[in-house]
Design goal:
The chain has 194 residues and is of the alpha/beta class. It is built from seven helices and six strands.
Length: 194
């Protein structure tokens, strides 16, 4: 089974470098729509069309998937949403500058739980469980998953066979990571080039 993990395209909050997590259901902005249309042409040349598209329930993921793969059915997967950024949701680093809880989170390397939100450990566990459950008993050989940047970092840092660090899996908006499913239970992935 081949799995193409794709980060959703741009939203207004992304352009302003805001923490846009599972509490904010932003649509794509005009720049995000244009980027996705451009990427759709590239994707058709680089990858076989997926037989199924898994999506986070957030509209930015569903819209990206619809533009990239307009004739492929989407399966919404609860649990693949972005992290719950709690009290930091909707804010950017400038607005959080001077906040002691934000500084503590930065100093922890992002491992502390967000105030009123999720810890990285909880987030990783949620995303991995959701993806593993979604892939069980699937018969398709080419599947795409249009999700969030954090979701991709969570899944690959835990399930990719190289066990690279969380932040080493950062991807830009509307960017894919091509993976091969090594085993389904437990789920293990091999990213392209590994």
């Amino acid at each position: 089974m081949q799995l193409l993990l794709i980060r959703h395209s741009l939203t207004a909050g992304n352009l302003e470098h805001r923490y846009i997590g599972c509490r904010t259901d932003e649509p794509l902005c005009e720049a995000g729509i244009a980027l996705t249309q451009q990427k759709a042409v590239e994707f058709r040349q680089l990858f076989p069309a997926p037989e199924l598209v898994l999506v986070s329930p957030m509209q930015r993921c569903r819209q990206t998937a619809e533009i990239l793969f307009p004739h492929v059915s989407q399966k919404i997967v609860l649990g693949l949403q972005e992290c719950d950024f709690g009290a930091f949701e909707g804010k950017n680093y400038q607005e959080l500058s001077g906040d002691t809880s934000y500084q503590a989170w930065i100093d922890s390397g992002g491992t502390l739980a967000f105030p009123e939100g999720e810890s990285r450990e909880e987030f990783v566990r949620r995303c991995c469980a959701a993806l593993e459950a979604a892939l069980q008993s699937r018969q398709e050989s080419h599947i795409a998953a249009v999700v969030h940047g954090g979701t991709i970092m969570a899944v690959l840092s835990a399930l990719e066979q190289q066990q690279k660090a969380y932040f080493s899996w950062q991807v830009k908006p509307c960017t894919p990571v091509f993976c091969r499913v090594v085993t389904l239970s437990p789920l293990r992935l091999a990213a392209s080039g590994s």
